[in-house]
Amino acid sequence: MRSTRTSAAPRRGRRDRLVAAAGLAAALALTATACGGSGEDRAADKPGATASRSGDGADAGLAIPSDLADRLKDHGIDVDEWKKGGWQDWDKDKWLSAAKDFVNPVIEGLWKPERMQSAEAADKTISTKDASADAGVSDPEPAPVEAAAERTPYHDNAAPVGKIFFDSPEGHMVCSGTVIKDVNNPGRSNLVWTAGHCVHAGAGGGWYRNIVFVPAYNDLGKSEAELGGAAPAEIAPYGNWWADWASTSNGWIEGGSETGGSGAAHDYAVLHVRPEQGAKSLEETVGAALDVDFSAPAAAEAGKMGAWGYPAAAPYNGLKMFKCVDQPGRLSLSPSLPTMYRIGCTMTGGSSGGGWFRVVDGETKLVSNTSIGPVDNTWLAGPQLGRDARTLYENMSKTYGDR
């Protein structure tokens, strides 16, 4: 989620931006109470696609549909060995890249606290040339906004926000995500919004594995030393939620790369999740979910935006939730690509996929997600969510939402 620094440009006044940020912080509300009512004291600090199905697990219930099992066998994968550790085989010829071949069966107990803490940030970098390719459209580079720690407990202040853990060929990785509402399953959503690069490697790569969402991770914001003796409920207050379906944009699958590539402007994804244990929906369990704003407002007309996430690269360690609030500007990587939003923010890798929020008619809505940023960690950029993103979301909701 990082890039090399772009060429210098005039920066907006820091004092004006801090005043504006305070105004949005007073309006943003991510909890069930704040989204649905007043609660002024809490609101003051809060904040064209393809889809795939995984099976459920049998000793944790592994049960992969026969048609998917046949396709996996075509790739040389023994589905009976997958859950026993076969998922660790990252042979390029067997690394599934077709959306229809996504597989992510529940492996109960895999994501233990120590495994979570060993996960590293899923960084994305872009070149200086790419970042300034359309300087005539891009707004001046924003001044940095220092990320502020979210108040604890997170389940009272930012319940829909959480961490995403997954395995890649490079090891255990982390991103951030947000519980969103499901239009076809009101009050019972199992949908999570994140970045495309948190679920799929992009062009020439494939789907990541063992993807899990943990809402309100490290609920009390404990230090690494304190987490050594923490109860499971303090680390994962709502449990672990495995992605059994995943959707990301064709733009990311075809153009995404280690440097963001042309896929950066389409770097978004939706997960359908199921609990490792339990029967209630994610929204019922967490008690909160946010609507997604697909109007893709122009940056100058969007008002202030806030980004939430779990930055994991230095100087952060991925254990605590942070937030930034700023007036967005435009970042254009190419005249042929949609313009991205850009805000000042010092969050680092690990915050990738974390939601960006704005207030629309008094309601907090997700409007983007963290995708890329500079190597000196002074700003973040996220995709505009327009017609293609809406189609991805609606297909996910209609086809998989009630499963």
From TrEMBL:
Q: In terms of domain of life, where is this protein from?
A: Bacteria
Asked whether the UniProt record includes Signal among its keywords, one would answer yes
SUPFAM superfamilies documented for this protein:
Trypsin-like serine proteases
Region annotation Disordered: where it falls in the sequence: 36-62
Which keywords fit this entry according to its UniProt record?
Signal
- The positions making up the signal sequence are 1-34
Q: What is this protein called?
A: Secreted protein
From which organism does this entry originate?
Streptomyces cadmiisoli
